[in-house]
């Protein structure tokens, strides 16, 4: 396999670019560094493309590695032929490689291995040759051997049949053909076990079936979870004629006389009809929300179809003709070995695909959540709601420093509202509080009602926002939380975290495991290492796209910077504590355990706002400082004009002279020149400033205040496979189904919506009993 050629085609990149990216990755360069500072080497790919490129490179290398292992194993066994070697070379997936190796893989004890040990492999080989004059009985008699456990003709023929069945199940072409047929014709089917599902979570899947080629990822994960919890029994079903076609496909591979099973003959038994009546009765009871295509119709479990088709099952093997014997062996191989194996394999493939989709959804939601605009210059009071233990309060200044703390009891059972208003009013006046952050956990509804009363009772302007507190308790109980605020207990730390999430979401959220942030679906069912790797990549990308203040960043935040880890981040923090604030990026080279490679990778992403060198507060990498000097000198520009923001004429001057010419004068490529100019125009800029500001509220609606047709402004809180949840200010998020997002067809809600988007929605329906709100974004003005 030519890995570079495959990657080039997949990502539509020049092979030279692919080679460059591979080389940079192998050198230990981080993805943010490659994306930002090596654009000339890869054609200005963004970090997500390079991340996907890296993932596929790993997959292709794993396939190559497995091919090498299989070739080595087959060589040691003496089974490697030119034909097999070519098949391995041509394979493009691990599944194909494993199919090729499957017949030669050492197996645990099976019926076939017992038969082979009894010396019956030659008999199976003779039968498979299908000579016209073959006498089954005469041949079988030659292999009777009491010492090897073959005492009669029936045992000899049964052993040969078992060997042939395993050959059928292991055959590469047979597996490929049947895998394709299963993918087109098989359905995943569920039976609900209400006695195992007390809350009736899975009642929707009472009698559910859907083609495996069309089942959406979120239903795969729901079915898997239901099966894991014992609430669902899951299997594959297929129309009888489709299952018979599968067997006939196998017979064409293994029976020379082109013998085929006749469906019409099989149907005369009436067994299919009886089973179909039962299946149709169940389908009528199916949940109304299920698609018509998902009903079980006349489908049956595949192995059941095979069993019903075993027309020779009761006939002794020594009374079978050669063709009947082969049909029987092929059917046994299909029903007992191949079908269950493919079902397991395809279930695994469906799960892998669904996991990747769910991880991708988490990834898409996490990025805009982390990049929410910070609430700058505000003194924030946090309310961490609770019932019995009261609401924990923390007040922090505009820089995130704790000013005060308290505990009040405005929620049931104490309901000391007046006392809580008095205490918190005093804190608002004392510290000039501008905003209140309310955690969205237990008792948040009651806390929100209380906060609205509090705001109305004070004579200064104060607004509030609901803050997702997912993971706040994880942070408060963590070693870092304890180290950061040893003087406070976990409840106050949690309140501090809620306040800081409103002030600077990115700086606070990176302190917890990304999996603990509630913007995904089924995240606890995902392969945790893969999920962790992907989400860590998102966090890394967000942190480095924003940049980090070298003199104020916490150790967890520094550890997310390109080229740094927990150890080097701690070394930087210790150096900073001992020597004082960094005055320039070059001082990083004095930090113990921070080598040249790490400096190269991290320096451009670290900012020093008060440095004498204004470039230290930009995304311009130190390696490009000489290029900036040449640029300014060429156009006779005073460096002080960078700070004063007087470089607006620079882009026009460069365009008039020609970007390529100016880039050549500066000794950099055109993409790097463009990035330099952008940074010089707005030194110290925060990319989050261009996003819609934080939505602050001053009053409250409840779900009881809503009416159908009401139009409201909302904020997207979570995007999932079948829609999006919108915060419309009533504590309970409403759901916009994918069909209600826009007038044109979309495959996924993420094509139109992103977490944090401000949208206008209309109420479709309200279910007070189930606390559900259905919304639409279509025909808002009608």
Architecture overview:
By secondary structure, the protein is of the alpha+beta class. Mean pLDDT is 89; it is low at 277-295. Helix 20 links the parallel strand 8 (435-439) and strand 9. The strands form 4 sheets. Strands 7-6-5-8-9 form a 5-stranded mixed β-sheet, sandwiched between helices. Helix 9 (121-129) packs across helix 11 and helix 32 (659-666) crosses helix 33. The protein contains 33 helices and 16 strands. Among the domains are: 3-104, Arc Repressor Mutant, subunit A (Orthogonal Bundle), CATH 1.10.10.650; 171-357, no CATH class; 380-519, 2-Layer Sandwich (Nucleotidyltransferase, domain 5); 703-776, Nucleic acid-binding proteins (OB fold (Dihydrolipoamide Acetyltransferase, E2P), Beta Barrel), CATH 2.40.50.140.
> What structural category arises from helix and sheet content?
alpha+beta
Through-space gap between termini: 58 Å
Shape: globular
How many helices? The count is 33
Any low-confidence stretches, pLDDT <50, length ≥5? 277-295
Q: Summarize the biggest pleated sheet.
A: 5 strands, mixed
Could you tell me the number of beta strands? 16
| Estimated helix fraction | 40-55%
Main β-sheet, spatial strand arrangement: 7-6-5-8-9
Average pLDDT level: 89
**Range of strand content:** 5-15%
Radius of gyration: 34 Å
